[in-house]
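quick q for whoever's on today - can somebody do inverse folding on this one?? i tried earlier but teh output was garbage lol. tokens:
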């Protein structure tokens, strides 16, 4: 059975996660996958804690491909290194403080089809004690993405697709995933969403370990400048509105109604009421 399945490379960039327990949880969620033909690639971005020891111990129990950066290089570089070392026809990323449901790869592989650039899933978003399920559109087009990142933080796709569009843009301070999704959708077609909740995403305030909050906002600004030539005026206006929100700048009700497309107003009103 294993030999008939395409090889999928699951990759994790990590830095200083040994003490939290999340890195081990992430790796074990890959080991629990029902898809059999799977390899795990971990890039340690110059961790200064016990992460190397943890990875070494796990590698004695299960086959792991571990690459260590001697100096911190950031999330985008670490992901590109992981993909370069991946042997799979397909690759699927996982952040080191998130984890997968056991059938994630199996379900994503079932949904992958020619004409789509990649597959994602619904995500369970954990905000401390509160949890919500992010139910995504069945098909997410380039035009959808030019409003905002409707795919999320991780996908399954063919390694060759990522290589042909140039991988993660290492010059961006953040939003490297969003930028890559736009380029994938432009060149290879829309994203398909598996109709299952297959990933649990940590949305707590201390989520970021490699990218700071300041870099996150700046990354979205740079990403907007990079792709605004593809956007309609409606998309550009909404992008600027979301960047202001991310930067913590005050936004009036009038500005919201002027900036938000009609089909997104309910979502934005709800957001503003509970901010």
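ok took a stab at it. sequence:
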């Amino acid at each position: 059975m294993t030999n008939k399945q395409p090889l999928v490379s699951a990759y994790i960039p990590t830095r200083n996660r040994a003490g939290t327990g999340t890195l081990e949880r992430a790796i074990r969620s890959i080991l629990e996958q029902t898809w059999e033909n799977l390899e795990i690639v971990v890039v340690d971005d110059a961790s200064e804690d016990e992460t190397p020891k943890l990875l070494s111990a796990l590698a004695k129990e299960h086959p792991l491909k571990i690459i260590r950066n001697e100096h911190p290089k950031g999330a985008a570089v670490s992901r590109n290194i992981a993909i370069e070392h991946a042997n799979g026809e397909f690759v699927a990323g996982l952040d080191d403080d998130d984890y997968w449901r056991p059938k994630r790869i199996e379900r994503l592989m079932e949904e992958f089809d020619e004409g789509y650039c990649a597959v994602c899933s619904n995500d369970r978003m954990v905000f401390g004690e509160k949890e919500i399920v992010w139910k995504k559109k069945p098909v997410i087009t380039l035009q959808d993405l030019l409003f905002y990142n409707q795919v999320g933080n991780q996908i399954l796709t063919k390694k060759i697709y990522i290589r042909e569009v140039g991988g993660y843009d290492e010059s961006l301070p953040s939003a490297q995933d969003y930028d890559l999704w736009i380029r994938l959708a432009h060149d290879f077609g829309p994203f398909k969403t598996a109709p299952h909740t297959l990933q649990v995403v940590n949305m707590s305030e201390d989520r970021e370990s490699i990218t700071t909050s300041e870099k996150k906002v700046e990354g979205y600004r740079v990403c907007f400048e990079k792709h605004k030539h593809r956007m309609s005026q409606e998309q550009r206006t909404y992008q600027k509105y979301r960047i202001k929100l991310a930067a913590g700048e005050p936004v009036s009700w009038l500005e919201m109604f002027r900036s938000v497309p009609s089909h997104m107003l309910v979502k934005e009103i709800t957001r503003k009421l509970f901010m």
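fwiw Residues 2-231 form a domain with the Spore Coat Polysaccharide Biosynthesis Protein SpsA; Chain A fold (CATH 3.90.550.10). also The radius of gyration is 19 Å. so keep that in mind when u check it
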